[in-house]
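Researcher: Hi, I'm a grad student and pretty new to this. My advisor asked me to get structures for two proteins we've been looking at. I'm not sure of the right format, so I'll just paste the first sequence and hope you can take it from there.
Model: That works fine. Here's the first sequence with its structure tokens right after it:
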Amino acid sequence: MKIILLGCTISLALLILGGCQKVIHLNLSSSDPRYVVEGILTDQKGTCKVLISRTKAFDDDNSFQGVSGAEVKLAAGGDTTLLKETEPGVYADSLMTGTPGHTYFLSVTVDGTVFTATSSMPRRVELDSAYVAEESPYGEPVKQMNVVYRDPAGEANYYKFVEFVNGVQVPQLFVSDDQLQDGKKVTATLRYYDDQGDDNDMPEIKTGDTVRVEMQCIDKAVYKYWSSMESSATGESQSASPANPVSNISGGALGYFSAYTLQERVVTAR
């Protein structure tokens, strides 16, 4: 199994189930502003959301400036849902719930331009358990979240984990595939390291802290988006635009659309 640690190069983390929205810049080269479309649909009620914004220059403030007046539609099996703009640049439907095995089509029309995307919701892989354990990777003991699940045999599976400590999101995403763990019971440690100085916002897990982890079963295209994000951040990409992740949005926008199953576990660190 390959686990990719994604740092603070994500344009906008969609935090749900009681979370908040945190804006993080894409690591883009200077160019004309482009639209950013970021959409999610899960198998949990009340999580359907699409955010529309524009890219910013490096020296701009780190705030979300939504694009209003767009027409946003989600379709599946002949049924189409028009999302409502609940606040500037945020389009949502409180009732729409995704179904594993179904394919969903996103259409965004803004300023006469149409952006489209397709995402298939994988079947749900059960998150068996989660726990915090202490380890010493570099001598100093640290507490880390661990997740346990059994990967289904004979099929390709892709996962993303998001961690929160006392309600604060760890600004690092954990993405994995089952290339080396097909059909096996997996215990994965969500490792992150405080290596950016005293001013970074990486929360440290301490005894008594409440730690929440989200497990997302994502499709291959979305996995490719997040893994290419990591490659761009570390300079490994050889593409013509190495700073831009591989989007599944057609029409020229940046971002992604992901239909995924969602589970969470909450534990108290000991």
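Researcher: Oh nice, that was easy. Here's the second one.
Model: And its structure:
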Amino acid sequence: MGYRANQVDDDGLQLHRCQQGDAGALAEVRDKSHDALVNILLSRGASRTEAEDLLADMWSDCVPGADDRPSLLEKFSGKCTLIGWLATVVTNRWIDLKRRQARQAEITKANAGAAETDFFERIPGAAPTPKEESLVALLRESLAAAFALCDPQAMILLRLVYLHDLTQREIVRMTGWSESKVSRGLSQAMEQIAADTLRELKKRDPWLELSWQDFVDLCETHQIGFL
């Protein structure tokens, strides 16, 4: 018990030294965690070059800037392990990178006069490479698990609107429901799918912290359809 308390104190002291710009302390943290963080990014689908570049930027941001820019480590709350927090930070930066690449691909595609497709079938990026297959599988499995939990009636509504392009007014005529009930059913279905997907994702990979928009952007980047 005493050893663990001392270890926690030592870790806190090391973190404080890093936050103050102690190059030696930061080098120790980097040496202990860099390879593990590279492997985490590779498992997400990043290339080794992307992983090394993202980590180089992250470690640089951990050093307080000359213009009074605080160390990135100032944002660490201590509610999880430091390596877990760093893994989340660098993963989110990788997601931002892929999102920018996807947007650039969309712009290029639009400039080339490519036709747009509907919400569930947009394909702004290139097909996944073998390195990205593990991430694609993780996204697909989490989404599939969420749809398996979806109420059948809600699934029918989603398919009618997003696959068959029916308007809510047409669905009202088909079902005899009020327009507000149809609208509410669609909103609740999407919210439930989002919540269930992120929960399933967290169960499969506790270190991957995504918002629903992050998840949607990744699905678009890797051509994962929703229905």
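Researcher: Is there anything I should tell my advisor about the second?
Model: You could mention this: The mean pLDDT is 80.
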